[in-house]
Amino acid sequence: MNAEASDSDLSACHTPTERRNLRRYQLEVAVTVALFFGLTFLCDRLVGHTSGFLKGVVALAPMIGVLAMLYVFVRFVSRLDEMLRSTLILSGAIAALAASVITFAFGLLEGADIVALPMTFVFPTIALFFAAAIPFVRRCFR
Q1: Are 64 and 39 in contact (CB under 8 A)?
Q2: What predicted TM-score, i.e. pTM, was given to this entire model?
């Protein structure tokens, strides 16, 4: 165990299995992010040249990368010990609630024609709140 790392530190890998799972997760995330950006780049070029049902399929194709990221994350969390799993689940709940409140507020503002928020900002907002919530949740479990 690393002397500087606390028991609830997500980067602290205590066993060879945990280190292997973290390396595997990092590789899988890198692949799924590359898949997402590759599909986004490709579909952005193709969507203007399609129509009808095919246009919808092309526009939604980057979701393959997003769904792959979701699968990789859920599989990673299922392999964690109980403390780390609880930290991530509670952080995810806080992130979802915070993003819900913010997007609801923007919906009200949009209804009043004050501002418009594209729906593509929701997922990055959740990710931002998720990352911000982790240190606070760690303190709760100390």
Answers
A1: yes
A2: 0.70
